[in-house]
Specification:
Layout: E1 2-3, H1 15-27, H2 37-57, E2 64-67, H3 70-81, E3 87-91, H4 96-105, E4 108-112, H5 119-132, E5 136-140, H6 152-161, E6 166-169, H7 181-184, E7 188-192, E8 204-208, H8 244-260, H9 262-282, E9 286-288, E10 296-300, H10 305-314, E11 317-318, E12 320-322, H11 327-333, E13 340-344, H12 351-364
Parallel strand pairs: 1-11, 3-4, 3-5, 5-6, 6-7
Antiparallel strand pairs: 2-8, 7-8, 9-10, 10-13, 12-13
Length: 367
């Protein structure tokens, strides 16, 4: 199979990931719940991953909170900053993992910057919204639908300038683009472990520039006599038993990334997107491409997107069709009624994948 659905989850992980997980299952117990060897080995695995993440994302190890996924991290971050009635500004390309928690909280949400592949429009609208006065800001670093890389550093600088605490959704960018808690000054940065970081499903990270409000309450292995959650990181955000095998796999994935180089991976992805864009455009397919684009490309075929995805699947090509859990992004791009067919390259992007996809595209899209 030619797997081009890395925007949903990375697939064909480096073999070191599975090896680390299996090793953890054989040697690790519950970290912080005992002084015996299996518990201590688990604590070492968790600390090693925390330190690896801190190095990769420029923060302190204790600022790294493990989550089950990016959605859990975003919910924790948003609920820590936003209260019912809070005024919140978001970009025009947010995922449901941002919009649904805000809706559930009854926040007053304004959307700023809806022109695709236009950093100038994004920044102009972003500053206008901040000037009007908001209590918090939440924005994605990279659109999961179109691969648009938002001007994250500039948006963060504007938030700091106007004194607005903010959350960055790094679901698509972590492991692909530089992400720094220290440089951005974000209140929180949330990311999954199973996408660009090449870890297993069921893992995620929340980088905490502020003390979060717990999303879950329970045991932490510390301050057991206290009825309240600990008032220090990372314990305050980590109730219950951690996914130690998953964390071991995540650490192995991040180590692999550091060895291979994120910039080289992104360069390979973008090269394949450029080739796809050129060929598909000549075929008469509606293609969404532009500057500030990553290794993700969306198209609107002449046939139904879901049917097109099924045709590709029958030819051994894995794509994703529909609204991609981001209806706001589709509204911004004018594809809310049709959805798109998404091609998202991963860490293994190569010309062979592109050639196979385009060969199938000539059969499916020119029917």
């Amino acid at each position: 199979m030619i797997y081009l659905d890395n925007g949903a989850t990375s697939f064909h992980k480096p073999p070191e990931v599975a090896q680390a997980m299996l090793r953890a299952m054989r040697t690790c117990a519950n970290p912080g719940r005992g002084g015996h060897r299996p518990a201590m080995e688990a604590a070492k695995v968790v600390l090693r991953c925390r330190e690896r993440a801190a190095q990769l994302f420029q923060c302190q190890p204790e600022q790294v909170v493990f989550t089950g996924n990016c959605t859990q991290g975003l919910n924790t971050a948003i609920r820590s900053l936003v209260k019912p009635g809070s005024r919140v500004v978001i970009s025009g390309f947010e995922h449901n993992a941002v919009t649904r928690p805000l809706h559930a909280l009854g926040a007053r949400v304004s959307v700023a910057g809806r022109k695709l592949f236009s950093p100038e429009d994004t920044l102009e609208c972003w500053e206008t919204a901040l000037k009007k006065g908001v209590d918090a800001a939440v924005f994605t670093h990279m659109s999961n639908v179109f691969g648009y890389i938002l001007p994250m550093q500039e948006m963060a600088a504007l938030c700091r300038q106007y004194g607005v605490p903010f959350v960055i959704d790094a679901a698509q960018s972590a492991g692909v683009l530089p992400v720094s808690l220290e440089e951005t000054g974000a209140a929180y940065i949330a990311m999954p472990g199973h996408k660009g970081l090449l870890g297993p499903q069921g893992t995620g990270l929340l980088l905490c520039g502020q003390m979060p409000e717990p999303l879950l309450y329970g045991g932490t292995g510390s301050l057991s006599a206290c009825r309240e959650m600990p008032d220090f990181l990372p314990d305050r955000g980590e109730a219950g038993t951690l996914n130690v095998p998953g964390i071991a796999g995540l650490e192995a994935g991040m180590a692999w990334l550091q060895e291979k180089g994120q910039s080289q991976i992104l360069a390979r992805q973008k090269k394949q997107v450029t080739v796809c864009t050129d060929v598909l455009t000549r075929m008469g397919v509606r293609v969404f491409s532009g500057p500030c684009q990553s290794g993700t490309l969306s198209i609107v075929p002449s046939m139904d997107c879901e049917e097109a995805a099924a045709e590709f699947s029958r030819r051994g090509i894995a794509l994703r069709a529909g609204l991609h859990c981001a209806p706001l992004a589709h509204e911004s791009a004018g594809t809310h009624q049709t959805g798109t067919l998404r091609i998202s390259f991963g860490h293994d992007a190569c010309p062979m994948q592109t050639a196979r996809f385009l060969e199938a595209a000539k059969e499916v899209l020119q029917k």
